[in-house]
Every structure is written in C-alpha cells, then in structure tokens.
Amino acid sequence: MEPFKTHKGLVATLDRQHVDTDQIIPKQFLKRVERTGFGQFLFYDWRFLEDGKTPNPEFELNQPRFQGATILLTRDNFGCGSSREHAPWAILEYGFKVIIAPSFADIFFNNCFKNGMLPIVLPAHVVSELFDEVNKTPGAEFTINLETQTLATSLGKKISFEVNAFRKDCLLKGLDDIGLTLQHEDKIKAFESQHSISPRAV
Amino acid sequence: MAPKTIIEKIWDNHLVHEEPGKASIIYIDLHLIHEVTSAQAFDGLRLNNRRVRRPDLTLATMDHNIPTTDRSVPVKDPMAKNAIETLERNCKEFGIECFNMHNPLNGIVHIIGPGLGLTQPGKTIVCGDSHTSTHGAFGALAFGIGTSEVEHVLATQCLQQFKPKTMEIRITGKLPHGITAKDVILAIIDKIGTDGATGHAVEYTGDIIRNFSMEERMTVCNMSIEAGARAGLIAPDQTTFDFVQTRPRAPKGTDFDKAVEKWKTLPTDPGAKYDKTFILDASKILPQVTWGTSPGMGCNIEGRTPDLKKVSDPALRHTYEKAMEYMGLGSNQPIKGLKINRVFIGSCTNGRPEDLRQAAKVLKGYKVAPHVRAMVVPGSQEIKNLAEKEGLDKIFKAAGFEWRESGCSMCLAMNEDILAPGERCASTSNRNFEGRQGKGGRTHLVSPAMAAAAAVKGCFTDIRKWVYK
C-alpha cells in the first residue's frame, strides 16, 4: 500500500446525509472480479442521465469547478449500508484520497484505511463551516498533514483532527496488515492449539 | 472478576494478541464467503504467494448473482457467470468447500450457516457482507468485513480489530397482536436512526426477545447493520440449543453436551455495564412500513410521510425532500392505501420457513391483485424443499405468486429479478436505498405478512384487521 503523509488538493462537496454504498457503486458493477475499473461507475445513477453516458448537470460532482478534485467534503453517516469494498475502490480510482464528514459508517470507514485513503471525522458545525468556505471560494483547496493531524484551507483556516494512532501509523508507513498479523504467527499457532472449534467438514 | 457482557466474553475468548494503542488480533471461528466480495481477496493471496490458513473453517456459497429461475439453464449474464465460475475455481484451488448453484445445500450465506448448525453460540463469524450480523441471533459475535479483510482472514484466520463499544437494546412491554420481529427491528431503526448504533456491538435483551424463535431472532439481528451497528447479538438459551442440536454439522452426543455447558457461560453477567442503552416499549409498535430511501425513514400503517412544514432542520428537510421526490410521495401523505405494483418475499432478513408460513397463512384463499406482480424467493434450496413438503408453494402459486429458486434475488437485484423505474414494491428485504431493487424502483420495507396482505389488496393495508381464511 502506498504511504499517506500529506495531501493537497481541490475540494468537492456532496451535500447529502447518509450516502449509502449502493449509491457510491451500484450493484450491477459488483460483478467485476478485479479490484480496478470501478471509478468510471462511481455514483453512477446520480452522475449520469438516463442513457448512462451523459453527465447529469444537476449532480454536484459534475460541476466544472469540482473537476480534478481529490478531497470530498460531505455529511453524516457517509458510506452506510453494504460492506462492499468496491465503494472505496471506486472513490479512490475516481481521484479522491481524503473524505471529510461528521461521521462515517463503520465498515466503510475501516475499508478506507485498507486502501490508503484518509477519512476525517470533524464536528458537524466545523464541516458546515468548511462547506461555506468551499461554496464561496472557487478552486478551494485543502492541505492535509497526517503527521501533525492538521487540515489547512486555502483561506488560511487551520483545523486539527483526530485519527487513531495505530491507523495513522499504518497509513504513514503504508503497512501491509496481513504481514503485520503474520509477525504473530507463533501466537496464532498457540491460540489454535488451545482453542477448539468444530470445523465445517462433516 | 468484573462482570462482563456477552460481547466482551466472546472478544476475550478470541484474543490472540493485544498491544496498547494498536488494533487487537482476534481469531475467527467461521469465515463465510460468496461470489461478490471474495474474488479480489483470492487474487491478493496469489499475488503474495499466500495460502488459505484454515480452509476447514471457511465455507463458500453463491447467492448474490445467481438467477432464481430454472437451474438447469446456463447463467445468461456473462459477468455474473464469470463471478460464479471464479468463486468455484478459487475454492477448488484453495481447498474450500463451495455450495454451487446445483448443490442442494446452496442458499443465501446467512441462511445456510445457521441451517447447517455451523453458526453456534460464542463463535466469531465474519463474511464479506454486512448482514453477517444475522448469526448474532445464536450468541455469536458476527460482523461484515470488506474484501481486504476477507483476504486477511483467508491468510491468517485472524482479523485486526478495535474492540467495539457495547450497546444494549432492551425491548420491554408486550408484543401486540399481529406484530412481528420485522416490525420490532424496523421500529428500533426508526427510533435510533441508521447511525444510532454506529461503533457499537448491540445485545438485544428483554422478555420479547427471549420468547422469539431462532428465526425471529435472526430477523432482528440481521438488520442491526441498518442501525449502523458493528454486530447485533442475543444471548443463547434453551431455544438456541434446541435449534442447533438438530442441525447436521452441530456437535453431536457428549460433544454437544460439553458445548452447551460452555455456551451457558456466555450470557452477560448481572451488573455488567454497556456503553449505551436504548429501551423500546414494544406495546406501542404498529405494523411498520418504511416510506423513504433509508431504513431509518420509518413509518407505520396508520402513519403518514413527514410533514415538511414541521421539519425545522434544513439538512433533514433537504434529505426528506430528495427521498419524497425519489419515492414519488408527497409531504404528510398516508401510507395506508398506497398502491403498489410489486411484492418481494425473501432475503436473509425474511426468507426462512416461518416467514414463508406467515405469508402463506395470509394468502390462503386469496388472489394477488391484478395489477401486482408478486414473487417468493426462499432463502435456501433446503427451505424451498421444506416449504414444498408443507404445501406452501401451492398456496403461493394459487394466489398468483411466482415460486422461485433460492438466492438474494430482488433484495439487491443483481440478477434479473429487478424493479422497473417507478415501480413500487412491498419488500421483506432490508434496504430501501435508491435503486436498491432496480434503478428508479421504490422499495417499502415490511414484514412477510404485511407484504402478502399488500399483494392481495394491491396497496398497503393493516394486517391486524386481516380476515384469515
């Protein structure tokens, strides 16, 4: 996994609460067996008109000023619903590295870290202030420093954010979870020798 | 020793490694996989030259993509076919048992685990599917994971996890006549919202839960994720033991007796503290019907859509307006009498024998309204066979329902079972998100009895007033 240290980028807003993973990547695209190729279908039903090709001019992310955005600013409970990791895959492939919201659904939040993306939780009123700033400032950019846990806006506002120390470390170093766990192979073996489970075999 | 909740007990029993400030490593007793969230995990194993650590604790089924029509006909959708074949190939390569479409044990992943007796009290159970919480009904700590974690479990039989906070949802009072487990869980989600339990593992408690059958408990635990919960579980008791004992892959004889002794130590100790508690008085629950595009947009048969004039929070009003526009509903509109075109009975929420019996009881002697297309999709092939033995299929077919093969079907509409734009569906599934059952389709979540009654009347009707024939 690529390490995540700092990130500076254009901010796009998605002013909706409870955006679910069925919207992020609709089910008809989950039949792919690869990890790639999902970005083109991100927010498919919102992003495109009936023909499935023409960008829907009403959809926020299609605004010219948000093209090339790498930071997504949104509302509460982002990523609720299904566990599909295709959702963060699609978001990342579309170009977003950072998502900022007052809250996230658990599985989605976890899936982001597994893909080198940073979901940032900020209080709802702070998120609202950021929305105001982005709405008023065409081309608004944020700079995120994971090491110092700070977010700086192009108007000079500085905000600090919380992130779990372990998750931060994994992101900063781009650590492979499986490799980390396998360092404890002896403990897994010891556990297995004491812990009896009836296996699935008949 | 300090009193512990069942959640903490299972967590502690599975702790392989912990270090301050880091995610803990916990052992996984049962890993269920299916065709939609596993292919990329197997690719990862091959890429890193890793094996599956415990194929004997891993079980695969295909359910999301598969057609619910005649199984002897090849799968038409080339991408679905590829996903199905990829799973079968991966299982063969890594030595994992897989119930393909032609296997009589095939079914929805959360239906077959309990059906086989692999879902047992005290286990840790994961699957790349958010409705894994279903297995919590047996007093297991069961939760959905992403594909990276599926790969992690395949490679290590462990997961890196932060200990979840605990929440008690206590259901008190007396369950009114005609109110089902589905109404109870929908009412809970209506009250606490789709993020009401985020970050928490939930234990459901109270006499009503105790008196529920295993199938009813599964319906409740299944939708825990719809309240944002990491997991939802119910402490095991005699009802649990009796259910497990009859299952083919449960421990047998003295092994079973020994297991029961262990399982009896699982329930939450008196005086144990939860991080959060929510109490619901079930006496006031009415037959539930969701009105909007999130399971938290709950309503009941006597209710109306929200009155936008009375919603002061602008963000919430905006959310409601968007949902009403999508659902083709107005502000303050009554639910009773709302016309539907489609009915779906099935899914990991409500595709078990009791659900089918409940619906069949309503349908007996009635016909589906002429403008309604209705289908039943049993949760597994075994359940389908059982229902046929009981003659339920005849009741459904006589009423005008389509009686289909098992699968996830129109719960998420990955196969051909799909709503057309603008169609309105009474569905026993778990999610009413935009497009969930088909682009432009409008989903109202209800119990099997309410769905069956809606099929007959052609609109939502009060099941408490139903005349059974």
Structure, described:
The complex is a heterodimer of chains A (202) and B (469). Chain A is of the alpha/beta class and 202 residues long. Helix content of chain A is 32%, strand content 16%. Chain A has 8 helices and 7 strands. A 7-stranded mixed beta sheet of chain A has the order 4-3-2-1-5-6-7. The N and C termini of chain A lie far apart (39 Å). Helix content of chain B is 33%, strand content 16%. Chain B is built from 16 helices and 17 strands. Chain B has a 5-stranded parallel beta sheet with strand order 5-4-3-6-7. A 5-stranded parallel beta sheet of chain B has the order 15-14-13-16-17. In chain B, strand 9, helix 6 and strand 10 (200-205) form a beta-alpha-beta unit. In chain B, helix 2 (39-47) crosses helix 5, helix 6 runs parallel beside helix 8 and helix 13 packs parallel to helix 16 (448-457). The longest helix of chain B has 17 residues, at 78-94. Chain B starts with 5 loop residues before the first helix and ends in a 12-residue tail after the last helix. Chains A and B meet through helix 4, helix 6, helix 7 and helix 8 of A and helix 2, helix 3, helix 5 and helix 11 of B.
Characterize the overall form of chain B.
globular
Can you tell me the residue ranges of chain B where pLDDT is under 50 for at least 5 consecutive residues? none
Cα end-to-end separation of chain A: 39 Å
| H/E element order of chain A | EHHEHEHEHEEEHHH
Structural class label of chain A:
alpha/beta
Strand segment count of chain A: 7
Note the main sheet of chain B.
Answer: 5 strands, parallel
Determine the number of helices of chain A (DSSP H or I, runs of at least 4 residues): 8
**Rg calculated over all Cα atoms of chain A:** 19 Å
How many β strands of chain B by DSSP?
17
Q: Report the portion of residues of chain B in β strands.
A: 15-25%
Question: Roughly how much helix do the residues of chain A carry, as a percent range?
Answer: 25-40%
> Structural class per helix/strand content of chain B?
alpha/beta
Distance between the termini of chain B: 57 Å
Biggest sheet of chain A, in brief? 7 strands, mixed
Portion in helices of chain B:
25-40%
Q: Roughly what fraction of the amino acids of chain A lie in strands?
A: 15-25%
